[in-house]
Specification:
Elements lengths: L2 E5 L2 E4 L4 E8 L7 E7 L5 E7 L6 E3 L7 E6 L4 E6 L8 E8 L12 E2 L3 E6 L1
Parallel strand pairs: 2-11
Antiparallel strand pairs: 1-3, 3-8, 4-5, 4-9, 5-6, 7-8, 9-10, 9-11
Length: 123
């Protein structure tokens, strides 16, 4: 059974950094497109970043460009989201998503989701 488990969330001051991890199990991680989404209270789940199978292509929401990076370690079945220069508006639950189609998808199209990890940025 495919499973995604996020970790690395927490409380950080504005301007600080966090690294989120998403560990995958139960399937061929290296052949899956991986993405990060986030959802703040009362808001929709929004795209944050994504990375292709080969890590040759990465994608970012405009709101995080230049501050967040995404990378994957296929040997460890893990994708990471490095978040720098955090702002209070980055506060949300961050979710990892995966799909075998190697392209950006709509939020409702991903086959697999993790349970999420809370990120809180204080001002």
């Amino acid at each position: 059974q495919a499973q995604l488990v996020e970790s690395g969330g927490g409380l950080v001051q504005a301007g600080g950094s966090l690294r989120l991890s998403c560990a995958a199990s139960g399937w061929i991680f290296r052949r899956h497109f991986m993405a990060w989404y986030r959802q703040a209270p009362g808001k929709e789940r929004d795209f944050v970043a994504a990375i292709s199978w080969s890590a040759g292509n990465t994608y970012f929401a405009d709101s995080v460009k230049g501050r967040f990076t995404i990378f994957r370690d296929n040997a460890k079945n893990t994708v990471y989201l490095q978040m720098n220069s955090l702002k209070p508006e980055d506060t949300a639950v961050y979710y990892c998503a995966a799909d075998s189609r190697d392209r950006l998808l709509g939020v409702d199209e991903y086959a697999y989701w993790g349970q999420g990890t809370q990120v809180t940025v204080s001002s």
